[in-house]
C-alpha cells in the first residue's frame, strides 16, 4: 500500500505528472527513480528493517509509480498490478460466493471473460446491463448486490455512464462502485471526485503510453479498501516487476502532453470520417452527434483518443483494415502510435455472438486509437484506405 503525501497535491497536473510521488534518490541524487532489481531486503536485525521485507509486498520503484498515479487520480492510495486484468481480478476478491455484481454490458472483452467464464465458477453472479441509463443499473440491483462495475467511455462502443448517478445507486445499495478509467485517463476524467470507490486502469494503455509494458493500477480514497487491497495484492501476488513500473512512471511524466494531442487527432479523424462516411456511423463523444455528448462535457474535461466507426459489413471493415499504412492493425491502445482493430474478432472475440448482437457490437465495427503523429498523415491514411467504398 502506498499512501500519498499532501504536499504532492499543491501543483498543477503537469507538474504532478513529472514530480509527484517521487523522492530524490538518496545515494547519488539520481533524478529518475532507480529500478530496484531485488527480490528481498537485508534487515538491520531480527524484527528491524527499513520498511521492506520481500519485494512481492513492496518495491521502491513500484511505490513511486503508485504514489504518482494516485495523486493524478486525486486518490490517497495506489496499487500497481502485473496487468489490468490482474487488477480487476484482485478487486473481485473483495467479494464472496453468493454476491452479485451489476456490470456494464459493453466492457472490455477480457473483463467480461473473467466475470462470465471464470468467477461464476466461484459462486459470483453478474447482471450485464446497458449502463447508459442509470435506471437500468438501479433495476438490476438486488439484495445480494455488493459491487457495480462501470467502464466509461466503453470499449469499443464509446458509451458513457453517469458516474455521479451510479455512485448514488451504489451508496443506496451498500455496494462498491468501481470505474474503469482506462480510456479517459486521469487527465480527462476523475471518477473518485464523482463518487467512485475504486478506480482501475490498464497502465499498459495511456498511463504508460509507449506500448512497451503490461500493467494495471487501482486507486482509492478509502483507508479500509486500501488495507484490504494491500493484503490481497501481497497474498495473490499479481505484482508488476520494477522495470515495468519504471517504464510506466516514465510514461506518466508526459501524460499531460500526450493526452491533448491524442484528443486533437481523434477529433480531427472523427470529423473527417463523419463527413466522408456519415456522422451516424462515427462514434466519438466529442462529436455533437454522439447521443451522450452533453454528459461527456459534464464529467470529462476532454474526449480522449478513441473512436469507433460502423462500416456496415465485415467486408467493408476488412477493406479499410487491410489498406491502412500509418494506423497499424493491432490490439491494445493508448500508445503514441496509431492503431486500428476489429473488436468483434480481436478484443471482444471471447464475447458470445448473441451478446455482441444484443449490445450492437457488429462485425462491421472498427476501433481507432489515434496516436500523436501529424494529423495530416493520419487523415491521408484514412483517405487512401476508404478509396473504393
Describe this structure in words.
It is a single chain. The chain is an alpha/beta fold and 389 residues long. It has two domains: 2-252, Type I PLP-dependent aspartate aminotransferase-like (Major domain) (Aspartate Aminotransferase, domain 2); 256-385, Aspartate Aminotransferase, domain 1, CATH 3.90.1150.10. It is built from 14 helices and 13 strands. It has helices spanning 13-19, 60-72, 84-92, 109-117, 134-140, 163-173, 185-188, 223-236, 242-252, 255-277, 293-299, 314-323, 353-359, 375-385, and strands spanning 2-3, 77-81, 100-104, 125-129, 145-151, 176-180, 198-202, 216-220, 282-283, 306-310, 328-329, 339-341, 365-369. The strands form two sheets. The chain has an eight-stranded mixed sheet with strand order 1-2-8-7-6-5-3-4, sandwiched between helices. It has a five-stranded mixed sheet with strand order 9-10-13-12-11.
Offer a few descriptive terms.
389 residues, alpha/beta, Aspartate Aminotransferase, domain 2, Aspartate Aminotransferase, domain 1, five-stranded mixed beta sheet, 14 helices, 37% helix, 14% strand, globular
Task: Give the strand order of the largest sheet, numbering strands 1, 2, ... along the chain.
Answer: 1-2-8-7-6-5-3-4
Broad structural category = alpha/beta
CATH topology of the largest domain: Aspartate Aminotransferase, domain 2
Given the C-alpha coordinates, what overall shape results? globular
Number of domains: 2
Portion of residues in helices?
25-40%
How much of the polypeptide forms β-strand, as a percent range? 5-15%
The ordered string of helix (H) and strand (E) elements is: EHHEHEHEHEHEHEEHHHEHEHEEHEH
Q: Cα distance, first to last residue?
A: 53 Å
Rg calculated over all Cα atoms: 21 Å
Residue stretches low in confidence (pLDDT < 50, at least 5 long) are none
Amino acid at each position: 500500500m502506498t499512501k500519498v503525501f499532501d504536499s504532492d497535491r499543491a501543483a498543477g497536473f503537469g507538474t504532478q505528472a513529472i514530480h509527484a510521488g517521487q523522492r530524490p534518490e538518496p545515494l547519488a541524487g539520481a533524478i529518475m527513480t532507480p529500478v530496484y532489481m531485488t527480490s528481498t531486503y537485508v534487515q538491520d536485525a531480527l524484527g528491524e528493517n527499513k520498511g521492506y521485507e520481500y519485494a512481492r509486498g513492496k518495491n521502491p520503484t513500484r511505490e513511486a509509480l503508485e504514489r504518482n498515479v494516485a495523486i493524478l487520480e486525486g486518490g490517497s492510495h495506489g496499487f500497481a498490478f502485473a496487468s489490468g486484468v490482474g487488477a480487476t481480478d484482485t478487486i473481485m476478491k473483495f467479494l464472496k460466493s453468493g454476491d452479485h455484481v451489476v456490470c456494464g454490458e459493453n466492457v472490455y472483452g477480457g473483463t467480461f471473460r473473467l466475470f462470465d467464464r471464470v468467477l461464476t465458477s466461484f459462486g459470483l453472479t453478474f447482471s450485464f446491463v446497458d449502463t447508459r441509463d442509470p435506471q437500468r443499473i438501479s433495476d438490476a440491483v438486488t439484495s445480494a448486490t455488493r459491487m457495480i462495475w462501470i467502464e466509461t467511455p466503453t470499449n469499443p462502443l464509446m458509451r458513457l455512464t453517469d458516474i455521479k448517478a451510479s455512485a448514488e445507486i451504489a451508496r443506496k445499495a451498500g455496494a462498491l462502485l468501481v470505474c474503469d478509467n482506462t480510456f479517459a485517463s486521469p487527465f480527462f476524467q476523475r471518477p473518485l471526485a464523482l463518487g467512485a470507490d475504486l478506480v482501475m486502469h490498464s497502465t499498459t494503455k495511456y498511463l504508460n503510453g509507449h506500448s512497451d509494458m503490461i500493467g494495471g493500477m487501482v486507486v482509492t480514497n478509502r483507508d479500509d479498501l486500501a488495507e484490504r487491497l494491500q493484503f490481497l495484492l501481497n497474498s495473490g501476488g499479481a505484482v508488476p516487476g520494477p522495470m515495468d513500473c519504471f517504464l510506466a512512471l516514465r510514461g506518466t511524466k508526459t501524460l499531460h502532453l500526450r493526452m491533448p494531442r491524442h484528443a486533437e487527432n481523434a477529433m480531427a479523424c472523427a470529423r473527417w470520417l463523419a463527413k466522408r462516411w456519415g456522422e451516424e456511423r462515427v462514434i466519438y463523444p466529442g462529436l455533437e452527434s454522439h447521443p451522450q455528448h452533453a454528459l461527456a462535457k459534464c464529467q470529462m474535461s476532454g474526449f480522449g483518443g478513441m473512436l469507433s466507426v460502423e462500416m456496415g459489413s465485415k467486408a467493408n471493415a476488412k477493406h479499410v483494415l487491410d489498406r491502412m499504412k500509418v494506423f497499424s492493425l493491432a490490439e491494445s491502445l493508448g500508445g503514441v502510435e496509431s492503431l486500428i482493430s476489429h473488436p468483434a474478432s480481436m478484443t471482444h472475440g471471447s464475447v458470445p455472438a448473441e451478446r455482441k448482437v444484443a449490445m450492437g457490437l457488429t462485425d462491421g465495427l472498427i476501433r481507432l486509437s489515434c496516436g500523436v503523429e501529424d494529423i495530416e498523415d493520419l487523415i491521408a491514411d484514412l483517405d487512401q484506405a476508404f478509396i473504393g467504398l
